[in-house]
């Protein structure tokens, strides 16, 4: 996997005051570019098949309305400002055009269930992009899709302490996810792991001979404490700004 000169990636862009520069907004991405940070972002698919940048499963926290990105068309989503700001949910293609290869991108693929249409659309847009990028996901089938259809695109398995951090998921599913055995199928190029759980056996095992990203860092002290554990650091605005 290619190495990047800057070890810091801005988590959902270099956002600040949510009423002015909210997360996953064009303003946050532009700010990251101007300050030389790599960008971590989240991709979802709208009801009309548009790849947009948005993290949450629903619209309530950021847009103050019900429903999900997947239940609205892109045009409908433009009616909902992000956190009451002047920013709207951006298209991936517009962000790619704005970044223009100036900083590397870490793109998390968000999908519900086994519908991998978001992989197809994201890959289609990235095929024409000339900058550096890699993809990551908690969903092992996303990684497997890229392994099969875009084997040259660096892919990473997102992980944490699933048993502790996902109480709403069935215990059996969490136990199966914890050792990351799906890596045998998806063969990730890198591991993106919650830094507070860096001592888990699953991370210690799978990090061997792989690039590692740590998330999410909110202080320089935390970065220093993990300096030897991760190659790259996904940082929050309170630290990176």
TrEMBL record:
Q: Which domain of life is it from?
A: Bacteria
UniProt xrefs under InterPro entries: GP_PDE_dom (IPR030395), PLC-like_Pdiesterase_TIM-brl (IPR017946)
Sequence ranges assigned to domain GP-PDE in this UniProt record: 6-241
Q: Which GO terms describe its biological process?
A: lipid metabolic process
Q: Which Pfam families match?
A: GDPD
Q: GO MF terms on file?
A: phosphoric diester hydrolase activity
Concerning Gene3D superfamilies, the annotation shows: Phosphatidylinositol (PI) phosphodiesterase
Q: Which residues form a coiled coil?
A: none
This protein's name: Glycerophosphodiester phosphodiesterase
User: What is the native source organism of this protein?
Assistant: Hominifimenecus microfluidus
Q: What is the lineage of its organism?
A: Bacteria, Bacillati, Bacillota, Clostridia, Lachnospirales
């Amino acid at each position: 996997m290619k190495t990047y000169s800057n070890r810091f990636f801005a988590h959902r862009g270099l956002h600040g005051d949510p009423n002015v520069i909210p997360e996953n907004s064009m303003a946050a991405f532009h700010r990251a570019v101007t300050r030389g940070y790599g960008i971590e972002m989240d991709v979802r698919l709208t009801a009309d098949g548009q790849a947009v940048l948005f993290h949450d499963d629903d619209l309530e926290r950021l847009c103050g309305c019900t429903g999900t990105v997947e239940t609205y068309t892109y045009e409908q989503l433009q009616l909902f400002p992000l956190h009451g700001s002047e920013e709207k949910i951006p298209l991936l293609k517009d962000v790619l055009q704005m970044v223009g290869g100036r900083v590397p991108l870490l793109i998390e693929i968000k999908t519900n269930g086994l519908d991998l249409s978001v992989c197809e659309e994201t890959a289609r847009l990235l095929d024409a992009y000339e900058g550096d990028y890699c993809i990551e996901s908690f969903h092992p089938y996303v990684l497997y899709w890229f392994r099969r259809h875009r084997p040259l695109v660096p892919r990473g398995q997102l992980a944490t302490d699933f048993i502790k951090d996902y109480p709403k998921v069935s215990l059996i599913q969490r136990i199966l996810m914890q050792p990351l055995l799906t890596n045998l199928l998806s063969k990730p190029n890198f591991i993106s792991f919650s830094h507070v759980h860096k001592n888990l056996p699953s991370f210690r095992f799978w990090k061997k001979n792989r690039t590692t990203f740590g998330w999410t860092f909110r202080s320089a002290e935390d970065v220093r404490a993990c300096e030897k554990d991760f190659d790259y650091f996904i940082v929050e605005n309170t630290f990176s700004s």
